[in-house]
UniProtKB/TrEMBL annotation:
Residues 97-222 form the SBNO alpha/beta domain. PANTHER family: PROTEIN STRAWBERRY NOTCH-RELATED (PTHR12706:SF30), STRAWBERRY NOTCH-RELATED (PTHR12706). One of its GO terms (biological process) is regulation of DNA-templated transcription. It holds the Pfam family Helicase_C_4. This is Strawberry notch helicase C domain-containing protein. InterPro entries: SBNO_a/b_dom, SBNO_Helicase_C_dom, SNO. Transmembrane segments: none annotated. Residues 7-59 form the Strawberry notch helicase C domain.
């Protein structure tokens, strides 16, 4: 169809992409490849901030989350060359925005379209409240006015805080209507308070299939709990594998996590599923010279 562009079935094949640009002038090859690498770097940077960059390490606390260690279990054991300590850290990661924080951010805004919005859609008598902040402070530059570049907005939600994806005013007004802070307060605080323990499915629908089946669901929670095994892990690795295999099956993927708490404590270790924590504590305590538990 003339004028209609469609992607090849192998549009995301790197080999084909590189082979095809070989037929272009060298200058164009360089510019096109630079555009590709700049885009890739931007995607990787965004993924790192959100903790979704898959290089075997999950970063927590890099996208503005509040990381707090709440418990620490230590297991001291002897080995051929001395003693080693294995640690199990219980960590809470807070990523929401309280009403007080939202009001402080709102008080700094000056743009006519900035502020609180409520969703047009109403589910079970509830509406989504958000805070929209213009990327450039609500005042388009002369260059933007000349090119009629669309204004973008950063979105904050009560349960998940700052959103990585920015929205245009058209996208914003399609789903939401601008309201006063008084109108938004009850909707904001209700979702903020509920999202400590209630997932988005249960909040909007009244129930969650996973929770009904006895499983955990963390979709939309503002506070997530991570169990991180650190310290001398290799010395007890076979024991860890046995516990994970018994509780979750042999196909469980091991995830390395790196985090920094609000107190400045750096932790690098392996994520342990919630269902395995008690069994692992028992296994590590069984032959430990000394065990200790601290609450923060």
């Amino acid at each position: 169809m003339p004028g209609v562009l469609m992607l090849d079935k192998d549009y995301n094949n790197m080999s084909k992409f590189l082979n095809r640009i070989l037929g272009m002038p060298v200058d164009l090859q360089n510019r096109l490849f630079k555009y590709f690498t700049d885009t890739l770097n931007a995607i990787i940077t965004q993924a790192k901030k959100s903790g979704r960059f898959d290089m075997g390490i999950l970063d927590l606390g890099t996208a503005g989350e509040n990381v707090k260690r709440v418990k620490l279990f230590t297991f001291l054991r002897k080995h051929a060359t001395g003693v080693a300590t294995t640690e199990l850290h219980i960590v809470h990661v807070e990523r929401g925005m309280s009403w007080q924080e939202a009001m402080e951010r709102w008080s700094e805004l000056s743009g006519s379209k900035e502020g609180f919005y409520l969703s047009h859609q109403i589910r079970n008598g509830k509406q989504t409240a958000i805070l929209a902040v213009a990327v450039d402070g609500g005042k388009p530059s002369k260059k933007e006015e000349k090119s009629k570049k669309e204004q973008f907005y950063t979105i904050y939600r009560p349960n998940t805080g700052l959103q990585l994806r920015q929205e245009t005013l058209a996208e914003l007004e399609k789903k939401y209507k601008k309201v006063s802070s008084d109108d938004a307060e009850s909707h904001w605080t209700q979702q903020y308070d509920s999202s400590v323990t209630t997932c988005s499915h249960a909040y909007w629908r009244g129930n969650c299939k996973n929770v009904t089946l006895g499983m955990d669901c963390e979709v939309g929670l503002r506070r997530r709990t991570y169990n991180v095994l650190a310290g001398s892990v290799l010395s007890v690795w076979s024991r860890v594998e046995n516990v994970l295999a018994a509780k979750t099956g042999h196909n469980t993927k091991m995830q390395v996590v790196r985090l920094r708490t609000g107190e400045g404590v750096k932790i690098v270790g392996t994520l342990i599923p919630k269902s395995c924590v008690e069994a692992l504590k028992e296994a590590l305590s069984s032959d430990a010279e000394k065990t200790d538990e601290q609450t923060f």
